[in-house]
Amino acid sequence: MKVPSELRERLAAIELLVFDVDGVLTPGEITYTDEGAEAKAFDVKDGLGIRVASTAGLKVAVMTGRASRVVERRARDLRIPDVLQRVGDKAAALRKLVEEKGLPLERVAFMGDDLNDREALRLAGVSIAPADAVLEIREQVDLVTEALGGRGAVREAVEAVLRAQGRWESAVAGYLAGLAERDRARRTQ
Ligand SMILES: [Mg+2]
Questions:
Q1: Which of 75, 87, 161, 142 is nearest to 117 (CA)?
Q2: Which residues contact residue 137 at a Cβ distance below 8 angstroms, ignoring those fewer than 6 apart?
Q3: Residues 65, 81: contact at Cβ < 8 Å?
Q4: 21 CA distance to ligand 1 centroid (A)?
Q5: Which of 24, 30, 65, 131 has the most crowded CB, counting CB atoms within 10 A?
């Protein structure tokens, strides 16, 4: 993915990454079961990317118009503290979130794939969409990933931010060191 130098500067300022769920963290399919539950599929490479981002000190949030327990579960697994579900007005929710965090909007990247993300994407300092976002969104955003939603698009976005900040390698090293530390701690228990 080619990142223009003007955009690299804006990516370098990012401190908070906000991801839509359906079509961004998932391929956008919702599976209904006879038992009344809903299932979604998440990408492990996206998950690792989010862990790398958090380890490097970036804040991560997810924001979705729907509500389901699997989203909470996935967020818990990835230790994402801010999980905003059943959000009708994503732009308003984004404003409120950055206010709570004391961050200017220029320090926020928002990733979305459909029209209900449009206003939040307009607000954010950097707007990102997966390769299979709807055309209107792809035409609007600063960056379109090569990967599809739920298929590595989030990983690509995380990497673009950390690379623009010149700390992708150190972030990965920090993440891997944390894993090794966890093993050591387990052995000495
Ligand atoms: Mg979506």
A1: 87
A2: 112, 113, 114, 115, 117, 118, 121, 129
A3: no
A4: 6
A5: 24
Q: 28 CA distance to ligand 1 centroid (A)? A: 7
Task: Report which of 61, 108, 112 is spatially closest to residue 83, judged by C-alpha positions.
Answer: 61
89 backbone φψ class: left, alpha, beta (φ>0; ψ -120 to 50): beta
Rounded-to-integer distance, Cα 62 and Cα 72, Å: 10
CA of 186 to the centre of ligand 1 (A): 38
Cα 100 to middle of ligand 1, angstroms: 24
pLDDT digits (tens, 9 = 90+) for 111-160: 999 999 999 999 999 999 999 999 999 999 999 999 999 999 999 999 99
CATH number of 100's domain: 3.40.50.1000
Structural domain boundaries enclosing 158: 5-187
